[in-house]
Specification:
Number of helices: 2
Distance between the termini: 35 Å
Structural class: mainly beta
Strand order of the largest sheet: 1-3-4-11-6-9-12
Helix content: under 10%
Strand content: 35-45%
Number of strands: 24
Length: about 280
């Protein structure tokens, strides 16, 4: 498990492109036959991916957690962006199709990821946050995620939002998780932009056509910085930073948060004319 330390807006404003990428971009989320984990000191979130092929992958407990098992003091959200697969939690098997989500309770000791077809493997995107209360392990399919239509073609941000782990959905201690799919011909996500000083956020960009990219913007509203992001790469967004992006085609992204609350609407809008 690699680590990313938290930095503030003043230091971020001095970074060049390679420095921005080093601190805020996670380039390797999915590796065939492996589990990738990145520990960020923004709200102690762990961001990762599990891509099982011919054999199941067991969630490890990195020594740096100083725990007896990974979820001893944590909760986990897993959202599948690949082929069909299963997650087994303490002997109970949960089937997850493409864009289905599973919340795994604090206290779960054994978590294993498997693919139904090694030639079309499942890709489980993982988010884990510290937990202080037990909530039941629960699955929610995309069909159950109550889609919300937002944006408009005129502003190039017409999109469908699927909410999985949040205040009115799957219950958690502090983890929030959902998915946004932009419609064809639309390229802007999270526009108008905003911050939420009470929560950090992580983005996974996916379903990006071959050769296409997203230009992700982060930083304080008056000190924004660009990052070119490829398919199935993730962005760490500090609480003080905006998080918005524009793609060279339509795409999808998973958003996940940890911090003070689980209210989807807790955000501080940034008017377009104040961005720099």
């Amino acid at each position: 498990m690699t680590q990313r330390f938290a930095i503030g807006p003043r230091e971020t404003a001095t970074l060049n492109t390679s420095g921005i990428r080093e601190h805020f971009l996670i380039e390797n989320i999915f590796t065939a036959g492996e589990i990738e984990l990145t520990y960020t000191h923004y709200d102690r979130m762990i961001v990762g991916g599990a891509q099982p092929t011919t054999a199941a992958l067991t969630l490890p407990c990195p020594e740096s957690l100083k725990a007896n098992f990974f979820l001893e003091r944590r909760e986990l959200g897993a959202l599948n962006v690949g082929g069909a697969g299963t997650i087994t939690v303490d002997g109970t098997v949960y089937e997850l199709g493409n864009q289905d989500c599973l919340y795994v309770s604090m206290g779960s000791k054994e978590v294993a990821f498997a693919s139904a077809d090694a030639a079309n493997p499942a890709k489980f995107y993982l988010l884990s946050a510290p937990a202080h209360a037990v909530h039941p392990t629960a699955r929610r399919t995309q069909a159950e995620a109550t889609p919300v239509e937002m944006g408009a073609m005129e502003t190039a941000n017409e999109r469908t939002i699927y909410k999985y782990i949040y205040q009115e959905g799957i219950q958690s201690c502090q983890l929030v998780m959902g998915l946004t799919q932009l419609k064809p011909g639309n390229v802007w996500n999270t526009m108008p932009s905003h911050t939420h000083d009470r929560r950090m956020e992580a983005y996974l960009y996916f379903n990006m056509p071959q050769g296409q990219r997203v230009l992700h913007l982060l930083g304080e509203p008056t000190e924004t910085r660009p990052l070119w992001v490829s398919n199935e790469q993730a962005i760490l967004s500090p609480p003080w930073s905006i998080h918005t992006g524009c793609g060279s085609s339509n795409y999808a992204f998973i958003w996940g948060m940890a911090g003070e609350n689980r209210e989807y609407t807790d955000m501080d809008a940034v008017p377009l004319d104040t961005l720099r």
